[in-house]
Design brief:
This protein is α+β, with helices and mostly antiparallel strands. It is built from six helices and nine strands. It has two domains: 74 residues, Arc Repressor Mutant, subunit A, CATH 1.10.10; 83 residues, ADP-ribosylation fold, CATH 3.20.170.30. It is elongated, with a radius of gyration of 17 Å. Ligand HQG binds next to helix 4.
Length: 180
Amino acid sequence: MSKYVNLSKEVSYALRHSPEKFGLVLDENGWVNVDELLEALRQDKKWTSIELDDLISMIEASDKKRHEIVDNKIRALYGHSVPSQIKKEVAEPPEYLYHGTARRFIESIKEKGLLSQERQYVHLSVDRQIAYNVGRRKDEKPIILKIKAKLAWKKGVLFYKGDDKVWLSDSIKSEYIEFQ
Ligand code: HQG
């Protein structure tokens, strides 16, 4: 496991879920000043000598593109649960997207569709393998749902760019979901 995993989890916690615990305020697109994040992290004895280069290496070492740094600002690209909605760029999705979930949620998803639950958006994956890995977090035999994304888009459902592997949406009715 990369030595940056713990740092990445801490940064995700700050930038997705609890910026106020770090004295940070996200702007409407989720950005904070890198120096402010570094200063906040350094208050914790685990991260007293953290530098910009560590954040850059953390992003490079990651299996997923969870965070990005542009012009001395940093943000999480998806996953947010902060109370004020982070604005994401609307974009036309591919024909199909995928969602990996636990067997125990299927009945509820059939009834209510995919809901964002604790997060701000529903998270969708560009392929089955990624969706499988997402679902494995909650079930050893996850169910992969196939989402008729383009059809939903044509019917007016909004989709947003997360990163190159993750798409976001507000909710997905079950009529757009293939349960296989
Ligand atoms: C389920 C990780 C019952 C949904 C991943 C999911 C992802 C329902 C769970 C990203 C439901 C929410 C997000 C309904 C949805 N009834 N259950 N109507 N609608 N659900 O963790 O998509 O590694 O908030 O199926 O890789 O699992 O952290 O969302 O199981 O990209 O970067 O409610 O987080 O990325 O769980 O994961 P989550 P998710 P990182």
